[in-house]
Predict the structure.
Amino acid sequence: MEEKRGLKNRGYSHSDVDDRRRAVEEFTGTSLENISKYCFDSEKASKNIENMIGATQIPLGFAGPVVINGDCAKGRFIIPLATTEGALVASISRGMSVINDGGGVRVKVFRDGMTRAPVFRTDGVDHCMRVMEWIENNEERLSLAVESTTRHGKLVSIESFPAGRNLFTRFTYGTGDAMGMNMATIATEAICREIENNTGAVMVSVSGNMCSDKKAAAINMIRGRGKSVIAEALIPKEIVESRLHASTDSIVETNVRKNLVGSSLSVTLGANAHAANMIAAIYIATGQDPAQVVSGSMTTTMCENVNGDLYISVRIPAVEVGTVGGGTRLPSQSEALAMLGCLGDEKAKKLAEIVAATVLAGELSTISAQAAGHLGKAHQELGR
């Protein structure tokens, strides 16, 4: 009680949260003592959740340091990771240590743009073509509609996809340091009003699923969504053999047969060992939308023998992250971003590069463990 009174004296009002929690306890017959303990301002958290009754805590660890040589992320970084999967942080740390011995990770953001794709109903193919022509001829007008809704978002490109009486338009926006999904939705609604008023097409939904948001989609794998990133490292042969206890050829073969052939046979979007593991852990730690992990799972991991050394790279087509807004405002998540030097403006590309470097380290460690036949042993030794 003393602690709770102290929080109230500092302006943290728990009364509504407490009332809801007591109602839930009565309804379910369950004590929520641990859920009731949290350190952040419940009034500020109302921007992130409705019907709040407390908080769920996830263990937070760190991997690294890892040496990153990117356009925005340069130097040695300790990576905060929130997970309940034992052995994950240890595996990522091993990969980072080996990568450091090879000179670090080289990483590039090669595309940047958040998408929203509404679907319109038209009268038929002729009307659909006229609507497409109007959109093409009025891009500047649509850009002004976007600018009326945001100071940070910019319309980058428009693509049209007719299908019978349906017209899907995929708008791509630059969203600065916000992940930008809400920004893109509001801007797209403004665009759609312009299109409806001038063409007679009817917007059926602001999201026609060609965006495609929070779903594994080939269009995102090919054209990207958010930040599209490539990370690479070259591990000398002697380090591969002494640190990873495998040969370059065995790691390359494991990647080909497992990630490329196996993923092809299962028709998996992406070809990787467990990229979603690293992405989920860093997203949760830094206040990103964890549902966007599905896009990150479409990573392609590649391994080659280069004169006996191991070349490894990951292509992540959809790293949907922000360093302002959303969950980044919460205190623990803000601190995790600050650990990376990624809190605030002009930091989103830096965070995307760090995400890719972390994925690369996790992929290297796991593929190597499988090539050496040590995966199960590693989990067993760590008591998992």
In short: The two ends are 38 Å apart (CA to CA). The domain at 118-205 is CATH 3.30.70.420 (Alpha-Beta Plaits). The chain has three domains: 12-57, 60-112+227-381, 118-205.
